[in-house]
Amino acid sequence: MCSRPSPGTGRAGIRTRRVWSSDTEGGEVPGAALTINELSKRYGDIVALRDMTFDVRAGELFGFVGSNGAGKTTTMRIVLGVLAADAGEVRYDGVPLTFDVRRRIGYMPEERGLYPKMRVGEQLEYLAQLHGLSAAAARTATRQWAARLGIETRLGDEVQALSLGNQQRAQLAAALVHDPAVLVLDEPFSGLDPLAVDVMSDVLRERAAAGVPVVFSSHQLDLVERLCDRVGIVSAGSMVAIGPVDELRAGGASTLVVDAPDAPAGWADTLPSVLSTGRDVRGRTELRLAAGADDQQVLRAALATGPVREFAHRRPSLAQLFREVVTHEPPTPADPPPPATRRGRARWKKEGRP
Ligand SMILES: Nc1ncnc2c1ncn2[C@@H]1O[C@H](COP(=O)(O)OP(=O)(O)OP(=O)(O)O)[C@@H](O)[C@H]1O
């Protein structure tokens, strides 16, 4: 169930800064949730994360989306423990992550991490053993995942000899080969051909169905919309909207599409509560209405011009919603300027800004 936007709601019905969250009702799924709680992180003067908070439930496929530089990779690196947060924590099953739990995370880094000169099979076996599998189990898992991902004939090749798409399949195999309890994937779909996208999607769905919390970042919003149980939209280091795609779309500003073939140009321009008008490729009028507008008044005006063949509200796509949320996110207050003296600046860097 989605918690309704409350007062303070932005134009699209999407809460800004304070997160609009929703709960999915459903049956018990084995496994445990990954909780990201109020992470903050700076790189020198750059604030990468501000109170980043969300959870990825057991058995859930969670799409982590945001503009370039919004803080997705930083969040994922902190989950993995390759980067330390300045504040906040990450929990699995309610408990702060330990080294042992981190070993059970399958990770696909954005910069990819396989050794280019090592053979694919050797590398997968090595990584599986690093994560605790015996040599025999590592070999079996390597063969199984290579076959599942369509690279079984490339196990004897060096990684650098593979095409980029096949390197990515090998990278996914590396994330999966130790049967992880959590999957964290940074842009796993970038650069894949449609068949590889299907394979990747199927595998992620399967892992989620087995109870694994799966979080992945992507700029391919149509894919995220199709695939994910829930989506989180990040802006300037914070989560600004979160929920099942349908519920987020239902909260976004809708467009009214009117097909009135005999209507003269500009017929709706002066109607009260019409914010903007346009035409789609099929010549239909598209109207954006103010919140609480009376669409029946628009219908009467359309009928006054002649026949009305279509009159429908169209919900925004995830891509439109994303633009709306990110564009209308108020800028965070400007940080105070650095102190004027060198000593002051040195203390400021060491201790952090006020
Ligand atoms: N090592 C670093 N040193 C300094 N600044 C960094 C470093 N890594 C990231 N940043 C900055 O932190 C912010 C968040 O970056 P991050 O890579 O987490 O974003 P992202 O959402 O993953 O972006 P993209 O979609 O482009 O991959 C950006 O302003 C980025 O420039």
UniProtKB/TrEMBL annotation:
Q: Which Gene3D superfamilies match?
A: P-loop containing nucleotide triphosphate hydrolases (3.40.50.300)
Keywords attached to this Swiss-Prot or TrEMBL record, sorted alphabetically, are: ATP-binding, Nucleotide-binding, Transport
Ranges for domain ABC transporter: 34-261
A Pfam family annotated for this chain is: ABC_tran
Q: Which SUPFAM superfamilies match?
A: P-loop containing nucleoside triphosphate hydrolases
Q: Describe the family membership recorded for this protein in Swiss-Prot or TrEMBL.
A: Belongs to the ABC transporter superfamily.
Q: Which PANTHER family match?
A: ABC TRANSPORTER, ATP-BINDING PROTEIN (PTHR43335)
Q: What is this protein called?
A: ATP-binding cassette domain-containing protein
Q: Which organism is it from?
A: Frankia nepalensis
Organism classification? Bacteria, Bacillati, Actinomycetota, Actinomycetes, Frankiales
